[in-house]
Amino acid sequence: MDVSKKMEKIIEADSRYRVEAYSFVMEALAFTLRKLEKTRHVSGQELLEGIKEYALQQFGPMTRTVFEHWGVRCTEDFGEIVFNMVKAGLMGRTARDSKDDFKKGYDFREVFDKAVE
Known about the structure:
- With 117 residues, the protein is mostly helical.
- It has one domain (3-114).
- The protein is built from six helices and no strands.
- The N and C termini lie far apart (44 Å).
């Protein structure tokens, strides 16, 4: 099954997030790996930092608005997206990885609204 079909299946099973959110996480993972200059496992915290930096590059002051349009309101939502992708075989994980890795990563208002100022 190709990536787009797997994403369709994810959305059918969990409609909280738009397909664009899943595509963005894949792009942000690639961005994070390039930034780290290594091909290795990326932790939840590393991915959250990559998401933040990549989002600001892509969307600037509209980042929080874009995320909210996709159904993403906090870093925990990215954990849900990542683990939906793991379950669908689109991402891997280690035994130490947990949705908890995405809890309280950063406050969207604080990070993305301050970027506007």
